[in-house]
Amino acid sequence: MSMLVLGVNHRSGPLSVLERLSIAETELPKAVEALVARDNVREAVVLSTCNRIEVYAVTERFHGAYADIRDFLCDQADLGPDALHEHLYSHHDDEAVRHLFDVAAGLDSAVLGESEILGQLRAAWEVSQQAGGSRTSLNLLFRHAIEIGKRARTETAIGRGTASISHAAVEMAVEHYGDIAGRRVAVIGAGAMGEGIAVALHAAGVGDVTVVNRSPERGNALAERINGVSVGFERLPEVLGGAELVLTSTGADRHLITPDVLGPIAHGDRPMLIVDIAVPRDVAPEVADLDGVTVLDLEDLTAWADRGRQQRLVEVERVDALVGEALERFTVESTSLQAAPLVAALRGRAEELRRLELERHGQQRLDPATQELLDVVTRGLVAKLLHEPSVRLRQQAGSPQGERNAAAIADLFDLG
Q1: Does the annotation mark 50 as catalytic?
Q2: Do 211 and 292 sit in the same domain of this protein?
């Protein structure tokens, strides 16, 4: 049984490919079910964010599982294997574990140390658990990943400063304008990203914010939090007409801002900046050709974040050390779990023999008090005899000595 991760992220593939691979939150359970229904995938977690699509899997056979997951991603993106291959990366066993821990710790993010990925990992894991995709092995792996993600941000300074995609989007706008306080701003989408954007805007001194959201309840709640106003999508053209800065991050499966929507209200004498951090993009590419309109997307954000990485690189070594410790702890615990079925089988066989011997010698003819005493004594004897072999099997799991001992016990006791 092996660990495997296959994926495409902001470094390995362009935004146009990530858009095609993106899986809506509501579709994630079906994606997990489809993966574990394949022949070589026993467990699976699907992580789909604005910067990556990754499948973490427990597999029976590496090559068969690689093909199964690759084909799943090809179907999702409607791309042939050759077209996807140049953007696809994979990690196996220890490297797969290390990769997940790096992701959780913020070392693999466009914004080094960003905090949003930890919540996204937890959400992906919970979806997989509910869909039956994450069981013993991936539950253990993701529990360790969440733990190292928290430690990285509490025990080092990797997450200080701009440590989220949403905050980076606002800082890009500040860099573009010099100062955004007093400008008329529209925030499209009131999900986790939209909330992060709105909070960052409020901290930057922006007081005139209109939240555009499909759900009135969520939009109103966010607007109240930042002293803004909330409207529905039917008023989007009106809001765009009065905005100087637009930040958008919805989960829509189509372009919300198109030349047809924005063209009639765009004016070259009143520049507009649009920062689009949605995947798929909320803004049609042609919008960037309109007079007075500047569009920045996740590829621009990645380039912007790369310039600021030096500020946090001094913390990477400390986070690397924490990740190394976490990998060792996970290896010890996971190898110990590998011995559990053999230990359970050994104890089950001993209990079966104990009962058969008691029955053979007519325990039922004894009085109740004697029967109970005999039962207690024989149970205790079996437990004591098996204690040391059980401990050694767990401690030595994964080592050559452990493999030899496990094979010997399975053979001697006919445990299959």
Answers
A1: yes
A2: yes
